[in-house]
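LAB NOTEBOOK - FOLDING QUEUE
OPERATOR: T.R.
BATCH SIZE: 2
PURPOSE: Compare the predicted structure-token outputs for two unrelated chains run back to back under identical settings.
PRIORITY: normal
REVIEWER: second-year student, initials M.K.

ITEM 1
FIELD SEQUENCE / FIELD STRUCTURE:
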Amino acid sequence: MANADCIIIQGSNMAECHPVGYQWVAEAKARGAKVIHIDPRFTRTSAVSDKHIPIRAGSDVVLLGALINYVITNDLWFKEYVGAYTNAATLVHDDYRDAEDLGGLFSGFDPEKGAYDSSSWSYAEEEGGTIGEPSGPEHGADAGARAAGDLFGSGGPALEHAEVQRDDTLQDPRTVFQIVKRHYARYTPEMVENMCGIKAADFEYLARAITENSGRERTTCFAYAVGWTQHSLGAQFIRAAAILQLLLGNVGRPGSGIMALRGHASIQGSTDIPTLFNLLPGYLPMPSAGRHDTLQEYLDANASKQQKGFWADADAYTISLLKAWWGDAATAENNWAFDYLPRLTGAHGTYETVMSMLRDEVEGYFLLGQNPAVGSAHGRMQRLGMSHLKWLVVRDLNMIESATWWKDGPEIESGELRTEDIETEVFFLPAATHVEKAGSFTQTQRLLQWRHQAVAPPGECQSELQFFYELGQRIRAKLAGSDDDRDRPLLDLTWDYPTDEHGDPDPEAVLAEINGRHLDGPDAGKPLSTYTEMRADGSTSGGCWIYTGVYADGVNHAANRKPGREQGPAAPEWGWAWPANRRILYNRASADPSGKPWSERKKYIWWDEEQRRWVGDDVPDFPVDLAPGSKPDPALGGPAALSGDDPFIMQADGKGWLFAPKGLVDGPLPTHYEAQESPVANGLYPQQQSPARLVFPRKDNLSAPSAGTRGADVYPFVFTTYRLTEHHTAGGMSRWLPYLSELQPEMFCEVSPELAAERGLEPYGWATIISPRSAIEAKVLVTDRMRPLAVGGHTVHQIGLPYHWGVGNNAVVSGDAANDLLGVTLDPNVQIQESKVASCDIRPGRRPRGEELLALVAEYQARAGVTIETGNRAITDPEAEGIAPGPSGDASAGDGPQT
């Protein structure tokens, strides 16, 4: 980011939420970069930016789509980059129909299943076939069990390499370029003003800033956080930015890209290894029952040996992982212990798990650094779900609300729960803080850094490593001697980590196991140096292929701390970045197709003709000896099939995807839909919400009516949640500290002076905010930072709610939780909740207590006429929207189900 000429911060309040990382924005600004902040609120980030552009929460695709349209119609796209490095020239199958043709739906939508069959989105082959047809039953899965992350890993969907049809003139109407151009033609500055509330002059300022700072000599960077991800189409927000950046040549170059800002020191690490239900370490997909019953079925679905790029070697990454976990017990005869892995039977994320708790299908629950009673959407559902458990283990620094809800939670006060009736046995186990344990953390930049232990943890506090190591020992001891086949995965685990004099396992030994090592031959026992050394024959092990090299030569490279002033611009000796210590992914794109830098100013990686290799400031993210202009036989498959102009080495065709022929379950192109709850009608399509969003129609998960339907005026305002610098997430690390609690002592709501006048809200007085799920109280902060927006001929008021407070008796400060207002609607690709935009009402005064609180919520529900079906129709208006026949020829028109 420090090398950017323009930085767009959208979906993030970076200066407040990522203050350490913001130093690089400040450095870029000091060098002359323009910084623009796009956010519903004027924040501290806005105050240190060149310009703040207020936006209606949830309308980002309209703005990004209009920028794409601006770039194409004004002929400002980076033609040489786009033509060589993206799939712009590839032709799409003739059966494809766009959302522009079908009133907001793409071809292949099945209203009975609430899901797409994506085969019509695929590429067209030279022989007239298609590339990337569905390879499993995922498109016919029940809506509640869909999650694209359990289908594809970091390499994306497997595509058999084929000679696809291309038109390098980009004139054929079936080229990706022309499809993108048509799709965004109606995303205009006028539409932005009408849907986002952004004035035409502000849009022009933004568009000029981005395009004038892109191209050969200059680069623009986007930065986002949960303001983009926590939506029912959050993955498509980021896809829209990726399309724009690819058109402008802003991927793989210094000061370019789309920076996903992580809110904790190792959130990146927790998805790398991971803590996600649908992934194995290194973004290998979790096997699914019925789809991956054998290792070969899993490998065939995961990656094809005929596709281009390094993801074709996923078999080596998988088998090395199995060897790391089960060692000598993983053999060729038992398919490397693949059957030891559990299988997914659907989506098993946090929200599906809570609903399973309410059905008494879950007996026990571990909470590790999580406080769902406060920090997860629909806090009431979370707390009621935990009341159905037999046992609950909470590991944390303090007695958080998720450990005490059974005696002082909101449902105790309302009478919905009685302590004496709750049978859940709660175990609180104190955890060590970050300074009381050693280990690595992986941050936003994919950089592993080593944390040395500063002091010993007090009392019985334990690190996660020590806790799980000892838990594993105890479980294995109880199972010793068992001849039950289901116990073999636990008994056969490699669980032999060296310990210190206190019995604590050595974290560097774990890092070495994650790095991997040779098991056979002359290098047996030697650490692997790079993931390309992994083999699918059982001769190597490695706990996370993307981390291979962090322990090369037996050295902990995460602990590297050479000062930047003593090394080159990429600072390769500070920490270690995955994969292979590359600081910029896809950096082959920093040079033109002939291997020369696009400009001297943005020089980064280039082809050295004398050395016949790629050289530069970083580790080349490309086969180091693959010359520009190389055209190997595509039948080779894998890395050997990459051409000299295929910089996107993990993609199945080596190109950056402007159009996604496979891999996304809600459309091949980002398309604007309104949120599950919105007082604004979709101005682009009759389809109001994303038809593929995951909804959970339940009496305890009611939704507010959308614009244009009965009862929408009962919840007329938009609220959005956010975090503060002074508090950390759900408050477990900050509301127990007096000096931080003093800085932000009370839950509050930010409202504009206009809304305060309309609703009779007094500055620093109390307000009650009501949604279809709950009602909370907050102190009123009247501020010009919240600006009313003119949208669709109406004024839209937005309310800002920090989400750090919770109701309990142990913290220094407590208060109502913003997340109690939220319902559960999920992005179908990644299963993340929509918590950045929802509908509410606000009125002066404190909320009622006890049963009167429930009566207030019910009274609003009755006035709005909300039912379980409200807002949960997959197709908004079936009669207004034609649905193209699926590939089988079956027409899929008609009424959509109440999914």
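ITEM 2
FIELD SEQUENCE / FIELD STRUCTURE:
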Amino acid sequence: MSLALAVALLGHVSLAAAQDGAASTDSKDKTTELSRVEVTGSNIRRTDVETASPVQIVSKQDIENMGARTLLQVLDNLPAARPAQQDSRSLFTGSDGASQANLRGLGAQGTLVLLNGRRLSYYGAPAGFQTQFVNIDAIPAAAIERMEVLTDGASAVYGTDAVAGVINVITKRNYQGAEVNLTTDMSSRIDSYGEHQASITAGFGDLDEDRYNVYASVNLYRRDAIPLSDFYDKRPKQYYVNNPNYLNNLRLGTGSKPGVFNPGSYFAFDPVTGRRVQEAAPGCNNVLTTEAAGPRCIWQTWMNNEIDAGAKSERNTAYVNAHFLIGDSTEAFAEATYTDIDLRANGGTPRAYNTTTGNPTNWFSRNTGTSVNQFLYPFLGPNNEYNHASPQLRAMMGGVVGLQYLLQDAGANYFGQRNTDKSYRALGGLRGAIGDWNWETAFATAGTHSTTYQTINVNLEGFEKAFGPYTTDPGTGRVIISDHPAYKFGQISDANAALIRAAFPTFDIQSWTRLHTLDGKIEGPLFKLPAGEVRAAFGFNVSRETFYTPGNEDAANGLITQQGGSWFDGKRNTYAVFAEAVAPLTDKLELDAALRVDKYPNFSANVAPKIGLKYQVLPQLLLRGTYSEGFRAPSLAESGTGGVFAQLGGYRDEVRCDETNAIANLLRQSRRSGDVDLGNSLLNADCSRTVARMTQPNQNLKPEKAKIGTLGFVFEPLDWLSVSADYWFIYRRNEIAAPDYSKDEDILSSTRSPITESDRAAVAALAAMCADPASGVSCPGTLPGYSVGNVASVVGQYKNKGRTLIDGFDIDARSRFSLGEWGSLNIGLAATIARRNQAYLDDENGWYYGNTVGYYGNPRLRATINADWNYRQVTTSFFVNYVGTTKWAWERIDAEDNNPQTCTAGYLPVAKAQCDGVPSWWTANLSLTWRPTEKLNVGVTVKNLFDRLPFYDPNSFLGDSSDYASIFGRSYSFTVGYKF
């Protein structure tokens, strides 16, 4: 933050920072204490908020001016921050329903989040079952006074996790009266989108006059669900080019409607050619005929699916803050926070019974060791009472047929996912003064309880009750359902609904985290040097941390498909002592030194030093620099007991990908529509598979270590202009990483499925097409086929890997203009320019991937520009967020396959206009706030003012550039607040 802006804020924050000053009977001493503030990154109070470390202060007004409504949106508008998990897109991440902070792109595990200078408990469920992080959605937004963002390492002050920086959210200090604020957001493009917030804050007591103050704040937040019906046709155009069957597969206007009975289809494989042959069941009114396999009965995809587009979220937060003066020099303080989050997403279309002829569903489970569990939807036997296939079809496989049938009985809203999280923190402490020394101690207890409810997966026992007992065809090994199953095909009934709910039950995953801390510190003058007073701080911290995920018993026994009862059980005590000193070496040169020793179990005590220098060259020019060492202890998820027994999405098997696409690309050249349809469905189908995954903790992990440095200046050439610039670097080693299953060296073992009937049917369809001159395809002499089946499972373990080096520059410029009777104008520019981002893998591979700055996910430039015009009772703010261009490839090795010449990303085509890479991107917000009286304020914000729509991004999960641009197009936010 620039010097001028920091000094201007000093008067504003000094009252809020009075919590750090002791009461005194001497009014002069009291004034001196009030003028001292404690800035994030230091334990020492000072009269100058500009320290050797760069600190950005974001006020509540700044947050309103940028149009942000949540902490996540604030961070998305800070150039030093990178996109991170957001709760609306968090389904199936392992930490569903939560949002993360991510400074410098080092991930949530490298960013420390504090509330009023103290730690919060981790979210109940770690991201990807590895990364434990603070859910920033649980911080009480209505009570926020400001945010301080330290973009420098701070392990010497705060301990683990503070490698990339610290985000310290500071609440109001002293509040009297009451105020109510209401906000609603809506979109011009997505009708169902809406975010609504209401808050009330009320307090009583004046700390100076009444010797106490107590206030409470309640924040209510709701985001409306976005169903597929409001989103399916609003993806970027290239998405539909690369997924040619996407819209067709929705079967809008051709398939049977939701709730209407659909008799389904039968199929079999020709024993001579291996081709799949199918027919619609008797009574079908929605027949689709394809030349490749024959007619089938189709149904519409239910458009109430909310999994991809946007889940409904309700978040309620309550915060209480109290301060009491005891005697002349002691203050008691307490605060309590409670957050209740409920995230729900309708799963849309009911499950379909679709006899499996391709790869089975594979998964590991806790109690079945290294054996891979498998599930296939069985066939109908020749004597099954529901086998009404034609004699010709039945004759192909000895009377056995496959079945496609819509299991509608459970209803439209039964399937889906829900996530709940209840988090709390209670803190109590004392602070005071002994002579010139200030002391403070506090005890805090915090925790979360997160539960994921999924109603998607099959329960093997429940499924067999509905469709069993099974038999096995001795000749082919095909599994056959009961000839007279309990489930009654051909009808929709309550009895069937009960069976389907047992076959697809609600499966829960619960997690608990707890954090108890006791801390204390004392701060004051040590002695005087000719240039001034040397101040020091000394303190300790003791904590007890636990993390427990017991896992679901049915899942642990392998009974829940795709979920294996992943579980963790870890606990540890940690201890730390620290010291810090600030010494004015000369009138212009100040030294800041800190040292912290942390002791974690299982490895030696960690010593984290930090040293900083601040040199006032001229009244208008300040030089500053720091060097520190940071660390991150292995989380209990990474080094405790347990493991991840689940699935891995997006696994790429180059062999199967190439073989399947060779078949698909020939089929897509055919003049016969059925061949083209089959080719479209096969295209890239084996390039991103879901496979069984087992990731094991590693109790021999070493802590991550880092060397961190900054060097910069603050320059104020004119009283209306200030500029700061800082070079920064982070050199991290022993990085703790989950296995990268795209690399053979990270896979301890793997298995493959056999070549399936569907594989053989695709090869047979290709052969039939090539044998038919009417197809118009010139086929090679040797037709492509399959040499192996798909990968079914992979096993890996958390590990320490090599080193990471990132560096760059931060620039901040602020100007303030007086416009006379026209008010005042503030203009600001903030930018982060990345220089290097590279990883040293090991001594054999070295810096294998090179510098990834300029490659996907690592733009060289991020910047924001803001202009705030204050005129009488009106404030008008214009805010621009800019992200520079990158290549589509992730790094130089990936660029061999994804480059402007191939015009692909993630091996998928991109629009010709984007062959050169991800375009630079900017969006603008315009807000207007009117305060007609001291009590009333009314505001409107137009987000994405110029209605810029997302571009196609094949590297992203949903195919759109959601890290850059909102799918909502231009949106509008309306706010009204009233103070009583």
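REVIEWER COMMENT (ITEM 2): Residues 757-771 form the longest helix (15 residues).
FOLLOW-UP: none requested
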